[in-house]
Amino acid sequence: MDIISGTSVTALLLLLSCLCFQFCTATNTITSTQFIKDPEIMVSNGSLFKMGFFSPGNSTKRYFGIWYNTTSLFTVIWISNRENPLNDSSGIVMVSEDGNLLVLNGQKDIFWSSNVSNAAPNSSAQLLDSGNLVLHDKNSG
């Protein structure tokens, strides 16, 4: 039976730790390149709130919203596409080139938009520990 050297075990553990960190690290910011795709979620910095897609109760409809992360009961505090739910789990939330937050289906049809008239290109949306989702202009802050 071969014995694995301590160096090999250490290298393997380091590699596995890096892979786990890459897949387990959550961010709280959405951009045009860092988006949420159903069933992914994002968590606020202090882990007080989550945002992502969900289906309430026995429904198959998909909604994008924000909910408490700290209670045992699933309590939604905001839903973007309440009037226009998605029919499947192909949803994507991203910041568009014009700086608006969008909820899209798999065919890139817009199901909801923030419709900010003075949004700036290269914006981002950040989930705060207050539960607010804030659009930021990267140039002016």
Explain what this protein looks like in three dimensions.
Keywords: Disulfide bond, Glycoprotein, Signal. Pfam families: B_lectin. It comes from Vitis vinifera (Grape). Residues 27-141 form the Bulb-type lectin domain. This is Bulb-type lectin domain-containing protein. There is one protein chain. By secondary structure, the protein is of the alpha+beta class. 13% of the residues lie in helices and 32% in strands. It is built from one helix and eleven strands, in the order H-E-E-E-E-E-E-E-E-E-E-E. It has one helix at residues 6-24, and strands at residues 29-30, 36-37, 41-43, 49-54, 63-68, 76-79, 92-95, 101-104, 110-113, 123-127, 133-137. Strands 2-7-8-9 form a four-stranded antiparallel beta sheet, with no helix packed on it. The longest helix is centred in the N-terminal third of the chain and has 19 residues, at 6-24. The radius of gyration is 19 Å and the shape is globular. Residues 8-25 have low confidence and may be disordered.
